[in-house]
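>> received
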Amino acid sequence: MGTTIWELDFYSRPIFDENKKKLWEVLICESPLDIARSPDSLFKFSKFTDNKSVNSIWLREAIEEAIAKAPIPPDRIRFFRRAMNNMILKACEEADIPAIPSRRTYALDRWIEERMIDFYPTQDGYDADAAKAASVTYPPLNAVPLPDAVRGDRKDRWAFVSLEAAAFAEMKDWDIGFSEAFPLEMMGISPEMKIPGLIIFSPRATPLAAWMSGLELGYLQLETGKFPRLRLETGASDSWILADIKDEKTLAEANGFDSAKKNANQVHFLAIQSNPESESFTGFWLLKEDC
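>> returned
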């Protein structure tokens, strides 16, 4: 049996009770993990409470209620909301489930967007102005160099590439060491769309892929300015310098990657191979940047 990961959010919603206080809601959904997983098959759980019950005890009880209803309990839980870090960590610890800050809450992000459009506006006490102020933004992060143990040398190469979305239907048959994916349909990707990506070719492919597999991979981001570079965003607040861009040709390719990412609803991928002739991937991850 494979790993089961849940994504969790616990926060106020744009709905007010009879005392003019915002209702709070816990949302839990399963991470798809696989390209072939149907979005409709993912476990989901939601529950409202008033602002007087906003504490780790209520949240732990809600998590335990979700576990009782789920076909498979989670091995760990991801959450993105830094403001709720302590409460979520405490509740999950008391429920005996490891919790990890992560920006890889793609299914949950999508579900929240859908509820903002289709569900919350239909509820009594909904406030449109409160909904407009509900988005989460964080200041830019300072990227740091990769750890010495996985930092590349002169033999490392990397290339911007792209694949038609339809090609990912065969991903389950690819020879991949470390990976995580999600169903492209969940992100509104049509089969003919081009999905951009970065492939790293390195003699140290295995330690690099193993290190990345232990992170909560978020997305690749192009940092422009005087010293352009490609960053790898991980966890809830970590940022790594993946590659410095030192010439105009590479910068043009990086800008092309960034434009293609926008055209693909910010979906992209990161792959690692030992060399360009290899028919296997040491690592392959589908990613999505925050919109």
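>> The chain has six helices and 14 strands.
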